[in-house]
Every structure is written in structure tokens, then in C-alpha cells.
Amino acid sequence: MKSNIALIGFMGTGKSEIGRVLAGKLGWRFVEVDQLVEEMAGKTITEIFRQDGEITFREMEIEATRRVSQGIEQVISCGGGIVLNKINTDRLKDTSRMVYLIASPRTILERTSKDSAERPLLDVPDPAQRIRELLKSRRPFYEQTADIIIDTSKLSSEAAADHIINRLKEDESFDLRKQSDR
Ligand code: S3P
User: Fold this and answer.
1) For residue 174, is pLDDT > 90?
2) Distance between alpha carbon 13 and the CA centroid of its chain, in Å?
3) Does the predicted TM-score (pTM) go above 0.90?
């Protein structure tokens, strides 16, 4: 039985903000895979990329995803690159409805430019070009994994969370109530 919601999508599509609001509305736990990785490593994502490299980060992301996939009644905010390793999406899909958040490249650039130092992959001379390239190569992976797709470009976090709840209510095989209320 699937009893988590996993938010996937590119950086800057609103996974963290929307995830927090959604978890609040459902009374579920909010979990960020990136935060778990930082706790495991005892350092920030940027430090892991700089000191240990992306491959080490991806290995830690696999372990964090394995742990988080075992829980129930969680809204899981996934790092943008989680779909690059099939083991992650296989594990998440076992216990979670997969909600793919999208936004226009322009919206993504606007949102991520505020904290580019926290996003090592976009800390480059031409982030707009990097966003276009990464989106192109990753889009097929996100689409293959998604159960539901929501465009967040023009939605507040509140409205996006309501949208997700309404879409999941249409899904008879997914129960949004807490187990204790069933
Ligand atoms: C990454 C996205 C980041 C973080 C890391 C790598 C990616 O998470 O996991 O910097 O590969 O797209 P957010 O999508 O939460 O910014």
C-alpha cells in the first residue's frame, strides 16, 4: 500500500515549499532527502560536492532514499537529481505516489538565482544554459517516473498543495487519511 507522497522535479520547482505546506495540510511528516544527506555527512550539500565530488553525493542520496522509502505518511521532497539513479525511483515508487512538479526555465532561473551558492550544479557562469541542458537530459526520467504532473510556475505553494490533494483524491487506490483515522 502506498502511503507517502514523493515530490520530484528540477531545482526551483517548489518541492520544499509546497512539500511543507502539503504535509501541514495532511498532518503528515515532511522529509527532505537533501537534509537527510546533510545529516548523514555532517556537512552541507555544497561542501559534499566540493570536497568529495558528485559521485559521493549520489551514493549518499541513494542511502538516504532507501531509508526514507521505508517510512509511512510522509511528504518526501526529493533532490532534483534523484531520478538519475533508477534504484531511487524504484524504491520510492514502492511506497509513494510520485508527483512531478514542473516550472518554466525562466521561473526556475528566477527562483534558483536567489540561492545559487546552495546549488553547486548551477554555480556556473551561465546558469540559464545549464538549466536548459539539464532539463533536456532529465525530462524523460521525470516523465517516466511521474504519476501526477503539476505546473507550479503560476501557483502559490498553498494552491499547488490543494491541487495535489484534489488530484490524489481522484485516485481510489490512494488513501490520504492518516492510518489512525481510517
Ligand atoms: C540537485 C538538486 C539539489 C541537490 C543537489 C543536486 C540536482 O536539490 O540535491 O544540489 O542534481 O538537481 P534541489 O532540487 O532540492 O535543489
Assistant:
1) no
2) 9
3) yes
